[in-house]
Structures are given as C-alpha cells and as structure tokens.
Amino acid sequence: MQSTEPLPAVRTLCRTCIPLVHDLTGTMSAPTADTCAAFTDLAEEAHIEFRAADAHGPTVGDHNSHNDLLTDPSGREIGTIVGNGWKVYRRPDGHVISYYQEEITLDAGTIRTSGWMDSTAVWSGAWQSLHAVGIGGDLLGMVGVRQIRQVRARELFTANIVLCSAPARG
After folding, report:
1. Alpha-helical regions (H) of 49-107
2. CA nearest neighbour of 109 among 66, 155, 144, 74
3. Which residues form the Allene oxide cyclase barrel-like domain (predicted)?
4. Between residues 87 and 3, which one has the greater pLDDT?
5. H runs (alpha helix) in 26-148
C-alpha cells in the first residue's frame, strides 16, 4: 500500500464535519452465515513505525505506518494488516482525529479499510471503527466495518472485522 498524505480537501472536510460528530464508534449487528463474514475477538499485534510530535499521546502532525499480525482467539495466525495513519485535527474538546487507510490480507480474501478515528479515544481504550470493503477473494464486493480497541499502547489491540454482501437491486 502506498503511503500518501491525505488530500488537503480531506483535511478541510475533517475540520468541517468532525466537530459535529459526537461518537465515531461503530456497532456490529449479528451477521447471518449466508450473507456475512465475521472475524471477531482477534488479537492484533502491532508493529508500528511512529513519527510522533509528542511521545505521550496523539498530536496533530503525527504519522505512522504499521505492519500488524492478526491471530484468532486460539492463537492461530489468520492474516496481516499494512496501513498508515495521520493525526490531522484537534477538536475543541482536545480529542485528536486521525485518518487511516489499511489493507488486510486474510485467507478468505483482501480487505481495504479507510476512515476517521478518534485517536484520543483509542488511547483511553475505547472501541473505534473504520469502513471496510472486500477487494479480493471470497470477500470481494462485501462491505462492513473493522473495529479496534487498544489493549497495550502501540503494541496490542483487540479487533473485529465484519463484512456483509450488499443486497441485490432489481
């Protein structure tokens, strides 16, 4: 995945819409076996190259790239994540908002994630979510969410990924 700075227009959009959003976390509905793929209660071992303006927490101007390992609850390796994040905005309440993009490779297929995350909430142990789209394999065309919660700062996260087929239109 190419590491590129988010477009200036995206920064402007963030400054405009993020102050209006009070809760950036997502929720998952119970998937059905025939229309959804759910990977839940995963351990995400993070390998982060962090370029921080302040080592004690998220700060506007920080950038990171990460190559993470995903394991299922039994400890079996099920995939990898390659991604980038940029801290781009500080809300009036002090929370730092980041833009992330990632590519997740699983046996079932490839997933692309992107979106806004409240990095301050991540540091407090709160769940955060990114949009997810299946771009290859059995997951191609499925849409959903990737959720993370930090367990050990910059080292270990709990993760969920749920993708569902879009309903047919006709």
Report:
1. none
2. 144
3. 51-163
4. 87
5. 119-123
